[in-house]
Amino acid sequence: MGSVNFFLCLGMFMMVGMANSAKFYELFKPSWALDHFIYEGDLLKLKLDKYSGAGFESKSKYMYGKVTAEIKLVEGDSAGTVTAFYMSSDGPNHNEFDFEFLGNTTGEPYLVQTNVYVNGVGNREQRLNLWFDPTKDFHSYSILWNQRHVVFLVDETPIRVHTNLEHRGIPFPKDQAMGVYSSIWNADDWATQGGRIKTDWTHAPFIASYKAFEIDACECPVPMEAVDNVKRCSSGGMKRYWWDAPTMGELSIHQSHQLSWVRAKHMVYNYCTDTARFPVIPEECVHHHHH
């Protein structure tokens, strides 16, 4: 039986490893507002109007690996709108890795907010503006997750690293399979300048466009116990996942330089330095190399 399981995992590993630039419906399904989906060849567009936003989710759950989508954000006046691309597990103690793109008035930069939830607890927001206009063309947004860290990447440039600090007693998301999700919705109560600027519906519909979906990760059968998923999706014996390679456990020197540049030039908010919200510095901020 063991050999059968081994070959099953190996087959899954090889198959998932080749899941490059899949079409939307191969990996995902609409989760709400199907009439707000527009399909144009390999392009998917999600539409937000005053009646509804829209969202989709992966057909499978995954543990460890990398997910990517190329996204072109809402052009023009996008104030009040949020487009999200994220991974999440289920339940009240869920884990979650978020990209949230916060719209703005014409001429003002889009803000990218990232957040990490561990065991149902978030409040780890970072915000940055990008070094390009994300409404003019498609750019890739990726989440890399392994047992050492979670890395958020934009066009393969790391913009955030959340390191595993379990050895210091800090929980790390490691044993809950996660789905991949995206949505667009109206959040004008908080999204733009703290909610001061509202969505201008005369500019609707607001359109976010997607293409080149990639999920290179360990697929988890449902239902399966968490401990079995961890075992299935961890390297061991002859089974070797690329995300467990030593080089994937930390940033390269070049990537570290890129991250330092992003933090110095483009970060506009970091929960780690928000003493009004957190009079006591959050523990992971004290120990993180990159916060």
Describe what you observe in this structure.
With 291 residues, the protein is of the alpha+beta class. It has 5 helices and 15 strands. It has helices spanning 2-17, 24-27, 226-232, 253-265, 283-287, and strands at residues 28-32, 37-40, 43-48, 54-58, 61-72, 81-88, 96-102, 111-117, 126-129, 139-145, 149-154, 157-163, 179-186, 206-220, 267-270. A hairpin with an 8-residue loop joins strand 7 (96-102) and strand 8 (111-117).
Summary, kept brief:
This protein has helices spanning 2-17, 24-27, 226-232, 253-265, 283-287, and strands at 28-32, 37-40, 43-48, 54-58, 61-72, 81-88, 96-102, 111-117, 126-129, 139-145, 149-154, 157-163, 179-186, 206-220, 267-270. By secondary structure, the protein is α+β, with helices and mostly antiparallel strands. The model is unreliable at 1-20 (pLDDT under 50).
Protein traits:
disordered N terminus; 291 residues; 5 helices; 8-stranded antiparallel sheet; alpha+beta
